[in-house]
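Customer escalation, tier 2.

The customer says the design service returned an amino acid string that "doesn't look like it belongs to this structure." They asked us to rerun it and document both sides in this ticket. The original structure tokens are below, unchanged.
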């Protein structure tokens, strides 16, 4: 039987996703890093916690979700760009997941229907 950690409950692991712009939009791409099995994730995406790092070095929490009426989505809370522009929180459709070496590149579709 597994023993509880002396440091407290285990937190879910968040995976770094490096984005090529300061914000998301249809067609934007992010490279999800550190997944234990990138090919399996591409074949069948699973919910994961993500740390989005944008090109201006801003980092925000996000989440890949697969439990809604749409296929996979990326849920991103409101954040502020490095230049001070406020970006409202959104849930984005993920158009596709593609394995690129040991990373998974995700391409943003449109805003997910509510």
């Amino acid at each position: 039987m597994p023993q509880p950690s002396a440091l407290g409950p285990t937190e879910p692991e968040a995976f770094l996703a490096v984005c090529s712009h300061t914000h998301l939009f249809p067609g934007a791409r992010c490279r999800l890093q550190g997944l234990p099995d990138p090919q399996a994730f591409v074949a069948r995406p699973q919910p994961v916690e993500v740390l989005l790092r944008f090109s201006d070095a801003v980092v925000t929490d996000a989440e890949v979700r697969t439990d809604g009426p749409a296929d996979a989505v990326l849920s991103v809370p409101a954040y502020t760009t490095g230049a001070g522009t406020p970006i409202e929180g959104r849930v984005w459709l993920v158009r596709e997941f593609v394995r690129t070496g040991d990373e998974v590149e995700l391409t943003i579709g449109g805003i997910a229907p509510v």
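Tier 2 assessment: The sequence is consistent with the input. The helical segments are 38-43. DSSP finds one helix and nine strands in the chain. Sent an explanation to the customer and offered a walkthrough call.
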